[in-house]
Inverse folding.
């Protein structure tokens, strides 16, 4: 199953992506969802983090670059972490702001969700965001996620408090939104 | 260590996800807790015997530390958890920049849920399918205690 949609494809991280990953990491406005980190990450740090990975069969995380199909532009990255085999994972996405609102992020998330539910057989996928990021919350809701936990005033960013939101999407909820797909995973635990 | 190996502790040890942990992993965990520079682990002792442990952590953000109180099954209902939690909360709110303290417990842990309510925590939500227990998915209930609420209760001599 190639991770290719109509507008974007997901592909592995390559050394030429490192400068883009540095700029995403160092954008105080958009980096992450929680505690602000100093925007002083260097190319060497990013190289060390993503360039020195070993081949492994047991994996609990993965990271892809998001590339546009029309013009082969690399516009951001998408990842899953904290994978618990056949159970759950947490996803995260970072896209350059000039590519927001064009549907690329939504499609990238759909490609990753399809991989996580159809190929990895997960029962639930989570994501973390914050109440100040209205666009992210709306996009997640469009994908089928609902707010599971709201930690009030748990994030201080841009001089103010925001709520920390944990959103989740159950396997059957995702399949219900994709009637063209049939789920053959036997679920003993519902 | 014996306390952590107790069969009824399964699902209550941070990171065990409801699964049996090998002794070697438990030993490593204890060592990690002791060495953690962004948290604190204390043993709860009564009558010279270990009755549980209390952990606090602020690795991600000193504004939002978390609290975990675990009492050995035989020592529950003796007020130990309440005293440990009250002392820990006083430490977090009086000696650290904590704005809100977080806690969580599995949805099946009726005693833990009631305890969190009693201590003054409010429910922040439920994370679905965080594990499997007795042939069913289990959830995790998340709690929060805002500084303002703690100060109010404290002023009222709660």
């Amino acid at each position: 199953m190639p991770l290719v949609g109509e507008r974007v494809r997901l592909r592995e991280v390559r050394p030429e992506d490192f400068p883009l990953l540095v700029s995403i990491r160092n954008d105080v406005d958009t980096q992450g969802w929680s505690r602000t980190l100093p925007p002083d990450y260097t190319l060497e740090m990013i190289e060390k983090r993503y360039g020195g990975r070993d081949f492994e069969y047991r994996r609990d995380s993965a990271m892809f670059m998001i590339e546009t199909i029309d013009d082969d532009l690399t516009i951001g990255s998408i990842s899953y972490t904290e994978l618990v085999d056949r159970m759950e994972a947490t996803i995260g996405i970072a896209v350059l702001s000039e590519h927001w609102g064009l549907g690329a992020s939504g499609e990238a998330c759909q490609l990753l969700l399809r991989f996580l539910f159809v190929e990895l057989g997960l029962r639930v996928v989570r994501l973390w965001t914050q109440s100040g990021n209205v666009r992210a919350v709306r996009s997640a809701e469009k994908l089928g996620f609902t707010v599971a936990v709201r930690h009030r005033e748990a994030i201080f960013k841009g001089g103010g408090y925001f709520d920390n939101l944990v959103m989740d999407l159950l396997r059957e909820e995702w399949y219900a939104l994709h009637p063209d797909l049939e789920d053959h995973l036997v679920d003993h635990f519902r | 260590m014996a306390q952590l190996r107790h069969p009824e502790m399964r699902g209550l040890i941070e990171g065990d996800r409801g699964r049996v942990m090998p002794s070697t992993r438990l030993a490593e965990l204890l060592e990690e807790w002791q060495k953690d520079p962004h948290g604190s682990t204390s043993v709860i002792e009564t009558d010279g015997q270990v009755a549980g442990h209390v952990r606090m952590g602020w690795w991600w953000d000193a504004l939002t530390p978390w609290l975990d109180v675990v009492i050995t099954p035989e020592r529950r209902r003796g007020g130990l958890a309440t005293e440990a939690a009250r002392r820990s909360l006083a430490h977090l709110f009086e000696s650290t920049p904590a704005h809100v303290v977080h806690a969580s417990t599995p949805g099946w842990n009726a005693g833990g849920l009631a305890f969190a309510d009693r201590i003054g925590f409010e429910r922040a939500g439920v994370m679905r399918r965080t594990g499997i227990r007795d042939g069913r998915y289990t959830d995790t209930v998340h709690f929060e205690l805002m500084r303002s609420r703690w100060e109010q209760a404290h002023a009222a001599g709660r």
Q: What stands out?
A: The first helix of chain B runs from residue 2 to 5. The longest strand of chain B covers residues 122-133.
